[in-house]
């Protein structure tokens, strides 16, 4: 009888093992091989980085850029025209009809001839002096004040910006361009706007902090040239006596024959 009971126990054990196999493979081992294969991780197998956690934040793809802050958003979207960009520039107020002409002195007799720009401008007396022109085609400067970065200058060159249909609009863009040569944060206050022979002149005050400069741009068409010429003059308040030279530049510029 002992052998009979031992045989029954063995039979029950074999039945239990068979039942366990059935629970793991309900349809047999081939069912596992037929299941879909999971997509591979975005991290290469050779990467030493730890596997992403199961938290919700880990489900965001790493390639998605962070949302830029409002201050990083450009004020001018690609595709805007130069005049639309000018209108959106808060450094320059709108040029209205309230900005009138200014009286000008007689043209200077002594001139500096800039053949590359195709114009002549007044050769200003002391303390002005000629200086290395690059990146312009002519340059006159005032002595650099001690402890100051801003100095007076008069430069000429072919127009470095896009020409507009009207000389007035071109001069406006040139005034905006001229802020590249003033301290950061500088703003414009218009003083005069008027037609000159062959072009347009704008005179304005440039304010930066507690300091200021008086400046002007003059755009004139050059004979036989594909673009106008530009004269730009700026005199800081460290040389207030030379503010009068700004008008001399406006009245004295002329196209070379």
Automatic annotation (TrEMBL):
Listed transmembrane segments: 7-25
Record keywords, A-Z: Membrane, Transmembrane, Transmembrane helix
Positions of region (Disordered): 42-75
Highest taxon in the source lineage: Bacteria
Species: Nonomuraea longicatena
Record-given protein name: Uncharacterized protein
Keyword Transmembrane annotated: yes
């Amino acid at each position: 009888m002992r052998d009979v009971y031992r045989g029954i126990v063995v039979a029950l054990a074999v039945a239990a093992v068979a039942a366990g196999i059935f629970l793991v493979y309900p349809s047999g081992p081939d069912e596992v091989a037929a299941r879909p294969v999971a997509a591979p991780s975005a991290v290469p197998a050779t990467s030493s980085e730890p596997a992403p956690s199961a938290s919700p934040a880990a489900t965001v793809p790493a390639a998605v850029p962070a949302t830029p802050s409002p201050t990083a958003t450009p004020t001018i979207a690609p595709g805007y025209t130069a005049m639309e960009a000018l209108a959106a520039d808060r450094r320059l107020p709108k040029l209205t009809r309230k900005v009138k002409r200014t009286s000008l002195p007689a043209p200077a007799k002594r001139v500096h001839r800039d053949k590359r720009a195709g114009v002549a401008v007044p050769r200003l007396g002391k303390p002005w002096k000629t200086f290395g022109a690059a990146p312009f085609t002519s340059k006159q400067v005032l002595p650099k004040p001690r402890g100051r970065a801003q100095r007076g200058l008069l430069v000429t060159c072919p127009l470095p910006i896009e020409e507009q249909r009207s000389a007035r609009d071109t001069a406006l863009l040139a005034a905006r361009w001229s802020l590249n040569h003033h301290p950061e944060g500088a703003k414009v206050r218009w003083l005069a706007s008027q037609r000159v022979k062959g072009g347009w002149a704008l005179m304005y005050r440039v304010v930066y902090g507690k300091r200021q400069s008086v400046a002007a741009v003059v755009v004139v068409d050059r004979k036989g040239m594909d673009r106008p010429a530009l004269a730009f003059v700026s005199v800081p308040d460290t040389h207030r006596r030379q503010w009068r030279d700004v008008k001399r530049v406006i009245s004295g510029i002329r196209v070379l024959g």
